[in-house]
Amino acid sequence: MQRIIKPLLRHPAMPMLLVVQVALACAIAGNAWFMLQQKMAPLMAHVGVGQPQRLLVVTGLRARGTPWPAATLRGLETQLRQLPDVETVSNAATLPMAGQAQMLAYAYRPGRHAFVNTSVYVGDNLVKTLGLHLVAGRDFSAAEKATTLNAGMGYHRAGPVIITRALARRLFPDGPALGHAITFTGSQSQRTVVGIVAHLMRNDLTGDHRHNLDISMLFPGTPARWPAPHFAVRAKHAVDARLIQSVRRLVTQQLGPRLLAGTWPKVERFAVLRARALAPARAATWLFAAVTLIVLIVTGTGIAGMTSYQVRQRTRQIGVQRALGAPRRAVVRALQCENLLLMGLGIGVGAVLAFASNAWLIEHYAFSRLPLSLLPVGTAVLIAIGQLAVLVPARKAAGIAPVSALRAI
Fold it and tell me: ∠ CA(25), CA(29), CA(32), 5° rounding?
């Protein structure tokens, strides 16, 4: 160890700069990589919608004055279902990727008070229209689908509920969820789990939901007096422009006289809705990926440059070692050990800076806590970059001819 530290102390400025650079890189890249993971999660998650090319979504419905009654919405749903190219239709309060209307709830298993933040979808035929994959249990019955939901949207009344497999595992880790009850904070009523679907992404994409993106549930029924109703239309084949025009024309005819001035029904393919909902996450992903990559490139370049400078400063010393019979691999190994020591110091300081800056971000901007599991991964990546960056100048130093080295300086 003394043989490694002693040469560094002869010219301490460059080793100290290297430690500072690695520490800053560790702090910046660590937080940037963590935020990159957060933003990438919705892009990689399974939405749950089956054959999305066949799904059409109607949004942007705002009533002037009192919202439309359930009977009006059911009548429009029946007319939409009668269009030649339509397979099934659902009137819903909320839909995946339609973030302008969100319903959230803190659900828990009676007798246990471990709350789970869930996204709630309310509609009369969502399983079939969205093409959700039932992995256990059943769909809602015709009588359950015909329920009219007034104030409370089903939170404060008993009834059935369909949940995702991820939510079932979260609430019932020790057994099956079918037939068991779920309740919500602020409610005394319980809903019974009658079905489990494989996936259904929540439409609340704000914050860090990497582990909650598939935590959602469905209530059956038609929302009455809901200020922002949605319609999901599943076509028999891939959605085309003719079907979009037919749906828009029918919705405008039935609801147009009551639409809020300046608003217009949006009839879009589900793919368009999804692309728009995920656009901020996609842009942030590119930003944080670029920041992380630039930091790593600058760090690697800086390590290579500083090592080359150290080699030039120690040309005579290396020449003496070579003249005394030191093999090339010994010179390379010595420089790599020096780099490993400096990288370790820099990573240690950088880890402290990373968690300190993360604590500041949590306090001021409601960021999520930086996981400890990121530390060994980041350490391995930075050490690998450091060892690769030092390899070229180390091999160049090992190739110094003893005679030319002794004549230098």
Answer: 150
For 105-121, what is each residue's pLDDT tens digit? 888 888 776 788 898 99
pLDDT in tens, 198-244: 999 988 776 656 667 899 999 999 887 788 889 999 999 999 999 99
pTM for this predicted structure: 0.79
Query: β-pairing, 104-108 with 116-123?
Result: antiparallel
Q: How far apart are CA 65 and CA 104, in angstroms?
A: 25
Spatial neighbors of 201 by CB under 8 A, at least 6 apart, are: 42, 45, 46, 47, 48, 96, 97, 213, 214, 216
Nearest-Å Rg of the Cα atoms of the chain is 31
Q: What share of the chain is helix, strand, coil (3-state, %, to 5)?
A: 50, 15, 30
Closest CA to 383 of 337, 352, 333, 328: 337
Beta-ladder partners of 92: 123, 230
